[in-house]
Amino acid sequence: MSARPSGYQKFKDEEAFVSNRQEKAVDVSAGVLGKGAGAADFPIDQIPPNFEFAELHREAWNVGTTKLSKRQKRNLQKHQKTQSNNIENDMIGKICDCCARQVPNHLLSLGCNNRDYSFLGAGMPLYFEYIKSCILMLLIIFVTSGDYNIITNIAFGKSCQVLNKELQGQDIDEKQFCQLSWATQTSLANKRNGDQFIDLQQMLNLISMITLILLFQYFRKEQRAFDAEIDSQTQYASDFTILLKNIPTDPTGLQNGDFDEDLKTFMEQYVQTYPKLPEIVDYEQERKQYQIQSKKPVTDLRRVVSVNLCYNLDEQYQLEQQKQQKIVQKQKILSSLYSQGKEPLSQEVQNDPQLVSVDAEISAIESKLEELEKKFIEGQDVKNYFLGQAFVTFQWENDAQSILNEHKLSKFQRLIGKKSKLIYRGVPLIVEEPPEPTDVFWENLHISTKQKILRRLFGYTITAIILAICGGLIYWLSAIQAESAEEQAEAIKNGDLKPNMKVKIIAQVASISIIVINAILAMIIKNVSQFERFSTQTGYNISLASKSSLAQFINTAVITFAISTWVTKNIYGAGGLVYNQSQVFVLNAIIPAIISLIDAGTISKWLFQYLEKKKGNKSVKTQKQLHELYERPAFDISVAYATILKNMYVVAFYASVIPLALIITCFALLLHYWVEKLNIARRRSIKYNYSSQMSIEMIEQLELVLPIYCGTNLWWEYAFLGSISTEAIIGICLGIGNAILPMHEINEAVFPMQSEVDEYLPIQEAEAGFLTDYCRENPATAETARQQYKTRVEKHKQQKQNMDKMFGDA
């Protein structure tokens, strides 16, 4: 937790603070950052672009922090005195005009502690802890039952045989004959006739199940403790903010017809009913003392800092699309002129009639965008746009938490008709905890619940159709492989004992095909999830991770299992399920890690950046397009979670019959862990603050491992022995019960904990550690708010230097 500043020191940055509320626009230019005091417009659509701006933008999106330790400051000062100072060091502390992001002072290293990711939201360090938890799960399954399974399969299993002369000339059933190989020897198929071993195996599997249930409670407890620790040490804009819904959209009775100002006045009056903490009273008294002694006007801090309204942005996005279409026309005209040998920025180019005409059309669209943005910022005459939702940010975190504690209702309470007691203009408001600023899909807030349901049903239908197509492809490969197995059986009957290489090649092709299909599935499901139009990035991420992992699991494990069990009826024969799936585990452990390590996306960006820079002034990209080109590939946590969940589901499905999969998958997750750390440290940009809700939901999804594991244990016992043990029945009951019961709520009841909150730290001090805020992220107010932020930070630096001199700290 941040220590409360003492004496005058805590007021050094006080005057640098400018309210986050959207100030009235006087002269705002659409497509550029608003005109701040003495600040030039940022040329977001200029052609040719400025490559130095693009490099600054890239560095501003590095994964790192802007706060320096004493050691880091000394190192930075040391480097600044040397001539070897590179471009990155020159940019440290600078702010990118287009996104108002500051270039980090300290980049995260490959071996950093997972807690170091906390400035990206609690969900980021919890993601890496999640991978470690999955590895621990696999190790526990292996220690409690997997090692016994492998040892007895190899040492005592005699069901699989080597092709030898004794079999020469015999008529064998290629589907029932288990040919000894590394895959079959370590599998349950090799001891399928050993009743005594399988009975003990089921007892050990039950012990694994009980251990995992207890382990999940430990995971949840540690997850919540980790989240509470991060929450107490790191502050976000959401800590000082509440989300209000059901706000009346009728302007009748508003003060000056101003939605945001009227709501702000109401909330300022309402929050006065809450007593101030003694620490806050002390802070304000010391602040007044500082103002008096420094001969500055004595002013009180307002308890409500800003109100950011949510709008229907369809009109804004349509105008932006029209503008982009005109920019594409402009780019085509410029390309044509350059190909004719005309020089960029020459009078001949600038006076070209076609170019002048397109520029005029772009200016007309920008004027419409400017007028629309002025409406949004002023909060007046927006009846047709206002959605009845607003983010209200307070000076003190305690005020936001007090209102949430008193007026926040659960979904169940709202379902049974309970209303909030916070009444505004005769209407009970809905009070909710807000998502992080970068977590909001502002353009989707106007989508109705009915539309979202219909879109999601359509999404599930498309996913089912794709899985059916994938199943057909896998069936086709299995049919070819079955023909090859029959050819091998016929060859053995004719005295040829040579292994049929066609069976092995098809097994490799099938394994690679499954990996390729999974990649295609992930891309398609990502587009389907985008079509569903979620209101938050977390909702989208959870949906994408859940659907993608389940679809890839069905494609990787269930379809192959169904075809091998009921269609080709080949479990352990040549080209059967055991051999093919073992190949899938091995290739799935290696290929994705290699692809991620090579990182074709980053390499291709480097190449295109080089080619674009060679064009110089003849580049026809806009500044915005060049920034997008220079950005490092964005980290997608939903795809990462989907990959992990798919691996866990598949290994749980086959762990009892292919126990070696536990070790292979453990190795795969370990590779994934370190490759992810490498990519995030140096080759990714992270655009969102990830909340702990994502990790909580992924633990819920991970619990499906238990019913999958115990269900397949029961099945394989029945398939090989024709009977079902009591242990298997108990295991499946425990697994299903654990998946159905509200285990997160049970964990909260058994292990209560509460995070400590730095309630007396004002937002003017806390905002220095925010990656962003609601005004800077809301497209309706972003242009002006980002320029205000840059002005505020620059003023902060100058006044801090002055205060350091005043108090002798320079």
From TrEMBL:
This is CSC1/OSCA1-like cytosolic domain-containing protein. Signal peptide: none annotated. PANTHER family: PROBABLE MEMBRANE PROTEIN DUF221-RELATED (PTHR13018), RRM DOMAIN-CONTAINING PROTEIN (PTHR13018:SF83). Residues 304-444 form the CSC1/OSCA1-like cytosolic domain. One of its GO terms (cellular component) is plasma membrane. The chain crosses the membrane at residues 134-156, 200-219, 457-477, 505-525, 553-572, 584-608, 651-675. Keywords: Membrane, Transmembrane, Transmembrane helix. It holds the Pfam family PHM7_cyt. The lineage of its organism: Eukaryota, Sar, Alveolata, Ciliophora, Intramacronucleata. InterPro entries: Csc1-like, CSC1/OSCA1-like_cyt. One of its GO terms (molecular function) is calcium-activated cation channel activity.
